[in-house]
Amino acid sequence: MFIQGRRSYRDVSDKDPWTGSLGFTDLGTEDREETLDHIKALIENLHEKHPEVFGDEPITPQQYNRELRDAIFSLGGKYRQGHGADNEDIVRDVFLDPAVEKGYLTYVDQRGDERIDFKGSLKATNENFAMDVKGGEGQSIGHLLVPSNTDTLMLWSERNARNTKSPASRLNEVINRTVRWGFNQEEDPSFMIIRDPPAGAVTTDGSIIPDVVVFPEEFPSPNSPNPDLPNLEDIHFAEVLFDVLTGIKNLSNETVKKHIWWHDLTYNDGRIEKDIWNAWNEDLTLTTHSIEYSRISDVT
């Protein structure tokens, strides 16, 4: 690692650091198509190529082969049903309820009552949070009634579409919508959480690692052109998030830092300048463009 200016950089020898160092899956590569072909061939021919795996199982290779088609059809229905689950229900089940069980927070599911999905409080810091959940790039962000006592406002993108886009594109397209929404609605989101089961990185035990985008403490304006980014140790909600979803609470842990993104925003001569870099290796950036402050389009 070497230092240049206010950032630290690491030498990354991976041909593609997104799929190598960061652990994403690029859904549009030929390598992935080959992997899928290998998996399908393994499933179809397991009884012939690896009959030894049935030694401790209650079925024989012959029974496996005979019932394989019906089993695959049954699994297909199971996975299609899961794919159609409400994003809000997924967030509740994988994060909010487990966080309550661990004693980290309390929350209220207020869907149908107010125009933001969840609100609650972190027990350790008494920070009040508000969270709205969306899917991928196709879902709009409308007007949200953010509670007046909110300390931490966040948007959660639960990505379940398998559209073939690069990891950087899958991050960028939802981040840009959140930034435009914040300016148009005069809100200051603290974080964006992006959980991407089809293409996101996973831990050694298969848990999906979320990516957390950290915004400045307020969105910039002519009166406040260069707001500060928070310190890593001060983003307490992210500690809870990573602990519940990955079992890693320390934000300085390498696995976690690879999935924290600093998103700087500054106002300069009528434009909003944007800069996004990775907390683990600040040489890994997301391409972004400045926005004309007076002509930020509505989010549709």
- The amount of helix comes to 25-40%
Biggest sheet overview: 10 strands, mixed
Q: Which structural category do the helix and sheet elements fall into?
A: alpha+beta
- The radius of gyration over CA amounts to 22 Å
Average pLDDT, all residues? 86
Could you say which overall geometry the principal axes of the C-alpha atoms support? Answer: globular
Instruction: Compute the number of strand runs.
Output: 12
Tally the structural domains.
2
- What amount of the residues lies in strands? 15-25%
Low-confidence segments, given as residue ranges, are: 1-13
Topology pattern, helix = H, strand = E: EEHHHEEEEHEEHHEEEE
Distance linking N and C termini:
42 Å
**Tally of individual helices:** 6
Give a summary of the structure in a few sentences.
By secondary structure, the chain is an alpha+beta fold.
Q: Your description of this structure?
A:
- The chain is of the alpha+beta class and 300 residues long.
- It folds into two domains: 30-83, no CATH class; 87-295, no CATH class.
- It has helices at residues 30-49, 61-83, 87-101, 167-184, 236-246, 254-257, and strands at residues 2-4, 7-9, 105-109, 118-122, 128-134, 152-158, 191-195, 211-214, 260-268, 271-278, 285-286, 291-292.
- The strands form two sheets. Strands 3, 4, 5, 6, 7, 8, 9, 10, 11 and 12 form a ten-stranded mixed beta sheet that branches.
- Strand 3 (105-109) and strand 4 form a beta hairpin.
- Helix 1 runs antiparallel to helix 2 (61-83) and helix 3 packs across helix 5.
- The radius of gyration is 22 Å and the shape is globular.
